[in-house]
Amino acid sequence: MRVTADDVRALFASDDPSARLVLHEGAFRVLGERELDAPDYAGALEVIRRDDLRDQFGEREPSAAEYERIAAGLDVGISNQGG
Length: 83
Hints:
single chain, alpha+beta, 3-stranded antiparallel sheet, about 50% helix
């Protein structure tokens, strides 16, 4: 499973300040802190927090190329963790 630009775009667009992109059971999901604490998502791997992503760009939306670059970088990070 690979992080896509659409996964990163969904995280950036989230209205929930506690949102995170997580890998859970082979799928990437954008979850808030409450959802992530639910037993259904036990063992989910946090990939990146919305706030960390937004810190890189402020309120400016990343370009399509930037979304692709971020997704590729996140894939490398997950691969390095053995995810």
